[in-house]
Amino acid sequence: MGLIRRRLLACATTGAIALVAVITVPGPPTSAAAEDSCTQELRAVATDIDETLTTSDAEWLLSILDPKHDAAERSSAAEVFRAYAERGYRIVYVTARPDGLRLPSGATTRAATLAWLEAHDFPTDPGSTYLYQAPDVLSALLPRGYKASVVEALEDDGYTVDFAYGNALTDFQAFLDAGIPKDRVFSIGKYAGWRGTNGIGGGTYDTHLAAHMPAVEPVCDPVTFPTEPATCPAVAYDDLFAWILEELLGIPPKPHTLACH
User: Fold this and answer.
1) Does position 6 have pLDDT exceeding 50, yes or no?
2) Which domains are present in the chain?
3) Per the confidence metrics, is the pTM higher than 0.85?
């Protein structure tokens, strides 16, 4: 069983409610296969989701309003991250989508996010991919510190985050804050190339897939290790209204048991 480290990411007090976020980071494996130092390499790629993998932030909002809406993906995005996974890299999805929120469709934001990733053929294997969502409203609205803390927690637990992808200034700032070099922070969208980050032009990953991925060396002997499930919030929200009551007025919703991924 992997070493688990829990880190306090944020604590925001709203009225009578104190919101505390806990992050669980899978540690190095202790299986017999891990005795070979080669297989112990914990190399990762971090990426935002909205307007980084999708074409705009509006796609997520449309998905909330209409559960049948399939958020548009940037061309070749899934191929890029499958190529990383095939080379042995862990894929870390780090998004400002609030965790524990139940959408009008009845699905949680986590379930809806995973369903979209799977439907678009992004890597979602639980042994080598991790999904981190904003643990509270403050982190959702101001995600720079939360996203930097995710990368720092991974690094503290032995991972090397070699590359990172984003579209927003808070993405770039978070990854740079966590120590990822500018030339390994890939920026897409209207801020492509912001302050020396590695810009991806054209709004798609087509050229990036062809130019960048052949130069990415594989992690030696990539294997899938058993990991602990991610820590979920203690409460899921019945609907958006209940979420607002909880965050703004301190009225607790009816608790539910959440399935983690």
Assistant:
1) no
2) 4-249 (3.40.50.1000)
3) no
